[in-house]
Structure formats: structure tokens, C-alpha cells
Amino acid sequence: CLGAKELYRLAALVLIGRWGSGVNDAGLDPGMFSRQAFRTAIAAEVLGESTGQVGSHLAYTSGLVNEIGRLAVTLSCGSFLPLVRAHRELRHSTWEEAENAVLGFNNAEVSWRLLTAWRFPAILSETARLMAEPVNASGDVAVLVAHVHAARFMAAAMDERRTEEETAHPVHAAFLAERNLDVPKLLGLIPEVEAQVTERWGSGVLEGILTS
Q1: Which of 151, 145, 144 is nearest to 132 (CA)?
Q2: H-helix or E-strand containing 3?
Q3: What Å distances lie between residue 11 and 15, 16, 17, 130, CA to CA?
Q4: pTM, two decimal places
Q5: What is the distance between the terminal CA atoms of the chain, rounded to a whole angstrom?
Q6: Which of 142, 169, 167 minimizes the C-alpha distance to 153?
Q7: Helix, strand, or coil (residue 151)
Q8: CA distances from 72 to 52, 67, 96, 104 (A)
Q9: E strands along 108-201, which residues?
Q10: If we measure between CA atoms, which residue out of 35, 116, 28, 31 comes closest to residue 73?
Q11: Which among 165, 43, 35, 149 has a CA at the least distance from the CA of 94?
Q12: Sign of the CA dihedral 10, 45, 28, 201?
């Protein structure tokens, strides 16, 4: 019988595998989302183990699924992405703010709705919802939000090929520092994350679509 840790990981892998291959219809690299998701998941796991504040399997799963709404928006509203991008550049806003202006909703809200509908634990859906504005998190969920937010920063820092568009996330450094997750500490953990990523996925982290 599979334990909760294995079930969470398998469910998350299915989500990424199910949706990752469809983004080429929007003119994007179909493996981009899965690679970034796995980097974020492993970074969150390593960070959770380092701080002892969050269970490593919970951090891993949250890191993996927190941007599932971005996949949904890309697949469902791909034709609107140029407008979102243009609004972001014109207004110097975040990607989520531009989505709100153009679409009337943002990818974090979609993540929350999907994870809620799929009956993921509430702490995972709430963490995904708060990724657009992590400073609004409070209570127990704020700890997980901080770890996943930090993990997204670490994952992006590992990818030298990333663009400064919708895959780039603003870093709320003060929010992280309040929880003893300052940027120098995060950067210092990146070599360990890179080693874990390479050990688990090898050259797959550089190209193609990651699968289980």
C-alpha cells in the first residue's frame, strides 16, 4: 500500500505529465513547465530538510503543483498571452497583475481552483493561491508559502536559459528574510539542489519532457 508521500508524488507527476506536452500549441517549449516544476519541487524539498520547518514530501509536492494554473492558462488562453505580455511590459506589472487586467483572473487563482476541485489538501491549494502575493500569507500556511516561493527563486536561478517573461517571478526578499530564508542562504543551497536534480533526472533537466 502506498503511503501519503508516494501518493502525493505520483499524483503530482500525473498532473505535470498530462499537461506538459500540450503547451507547444501555444508556441512554447513543451518541456519547460515540467523541468521548472521539478527544479522547484526538489529545491523546496532540500529547503524543507535544511530548515526543518516543513515536511520534505509536503514541500516537494507543493513545489511541483503550485503552478498548475499556469499550464491551464497557457493551454486555454494561449491566444491572449501576447496581450498579457504587452500589458506587463507597458505597465511594468507582475505577470499575475497583467493576467488580471487582460483575462480577469490570474494563474494562481486557477491553480487554487484546480487543486481544490481535485481534492488536494487545502494547504497545497492555499499555497498555490498565495504565490501571486506571498506577503498576504499568514499562520501555518505562510511557512509553506515562504519555502515554495524561495524554491521558485532557486529554480529560476538554476536555469540560465530562462526569459524575463511569464516564467520569471518577483522575489519578496523581506518576506523571506522574516522567516530566516534570506537570499544568500538560498543561493548557498543551490549546489545541493543542482546535485539532487542531476542525480534524479540526469540530462533530462536540460531538454525534453520529464516523466516518472
Answers
A1: 145
A2: none
A3: 6, 9, 10, 21
A4: 0.84
A5: 19
A6: 169
A7: helix
A8: 32, 9, 14, 15
A9: none
A10: 28
A11: 165
A12: negative
- DSSP per residue, the chain: ---HHHHHHHHHHHHHHHHHTTGGGGTS-TTHHHHHHHHHHHHHHHHHHHHSSS-HHHHHHHHHHTTHHHHHHHHHSGGGHHHHHHHHHHHT--HHHHHHHHHSS-HHHHHHHHHHHTT--HHHHHHHHGGGSGGG--HHHHHHHHHHHHHHHHHHHH-TT--SSTT-----HHHHHTTT--HHHHHHHHHHHHHHHHHHHGGGGTSS----
Q: Mean pLDDT of residues grouped by 10 in the chain (212 residues)?
A: 56 61 57 82 94 92 89 85 93 92 95 89 94 90 95 85 54 89 92 90 55 47
SS3 66: coil
For the chain, how many residues are written?
212
Q: Are 156 and 35 in contact (CB under 8 A)?
A: no
DSSP 99-115: HHHHHSS-HHHHHHHHH
What pLDDT sits at residue 35?
Answer: 81
Alpha-carbon span 131 to 50, nearest angstrom: 21
Residue 180 CB: number of other CB atoms within 10 A? 10
Distance CA 154, CA 148 (A): 10
